[in-house]
Design brief:
CATH superfamily of the largest domain: GntR ligand-binding domain-like
CATH topology of the largest domain: Four Helix Bundle (Hemerythrin (Met), subunit A)
Largest sheet: 3 strands, antiparallel
Radius of gyration: 18 Å
CATH architecture of the largest domain: Up-down Bundle
Strand content: under 5%
Helix content: over 70%
Structural class: mainly alpha
Order of helices and strands: HEHHEEHHHHHH
Distance between the termini: 44 Å
């Protein structure tokens, strides 16, 4: 049985929708539609909206409603700064037989399958699962919970871009390389590869935003 209050569980469910790309920046969230979709009262939904607004994932506009936030360039840069600290740190203490490596492998295989089918949103979701599993290598529930909020902000930045193939496809193979290094016990090399990955990903996102004039 879950111990989280109802509003926190609803906030988590909405955060999961953000992480999978089911919600996009600027989208208006209808109270009526979401209370029915999530099978909760409007009061519980409003409290969940309040929690997510506090996290910066949603924004409330007077007389207009609640909208999915649109991350700024400065916020995106900060997201990648946090990712370097968390993901590279987790890899440096990784254990090849940690259960999270199975999740990492499953995520890589799922991403490769979706890439073959050119299902780019699903590729992005699989990549996100890979990186969440990297954080799970740390065996810290607090870090994993914190990273879920970071991941939701990250996925919002992806939603601003017009070329999902360029955004997701090249990084599937890099994830596989990182996993291979972890499985060989070369954790410092894995952390170095992750740093290269994040630098490339950040440049890709920022350049795409610049081209789009956002």
């Amino acid at each position: 049985m879950e111990s989280l209050p109802l509003a926190d569980r609803v906030a988590r469910d909405i955060r999961d929708l953000l992480i999978t790309g089911a919600l996009v920046p600027g989208q208006r969230l209808s109270e009526a539609a979401f209370s029915e979709r999530l099978d909760v009262s409007r009061n519980s939904l409003r409290e969940a909206f309040r929690l997510l607004t506090k996290d910066g994932l949603l924004r409330h506009e007077a007389n207009r409603g609640v909208f999915v936030s649109t991350p700024s360039t400065d916020q995106i840069i900060d997201i990648y700064r946090v990712r370097r600290m968390l993901e590279c740190g987790a890899l440096r203490q990784a254990w090849p037989k940690h259960p999270a490596t199975t999740t990492m492998r499953d995520a890589v295989e799922a991403a490769k399958l979706h890439r073959e089918r050119q299902e780019w949103r699903e590729v992005g979701s699989a990549n996100m699962k890979f990186h969440a599993a990297v954080i799970d290598l740390s065996d810290s529930s607090r870090l994993s919970d914190f990273y879920a909020r970071v991941a939701a902000e990250l996925r919002l930045s992806f939603g601003l871009l017009n070329d999902p193939e360029q955004l997701h496809s090249p990084f599937v193979d890099m994830n596989e390389q990182i996993l291979g290094l972890v499985m060989k016990g070369k954790v410092e090399d894995a952390a170095t590869q992750m740093d290269l990955y994040l630098n490339l990903s950040e440049r890709t996102v920022l350049k795409a935003l610049e081209r789009a004039g956002k």
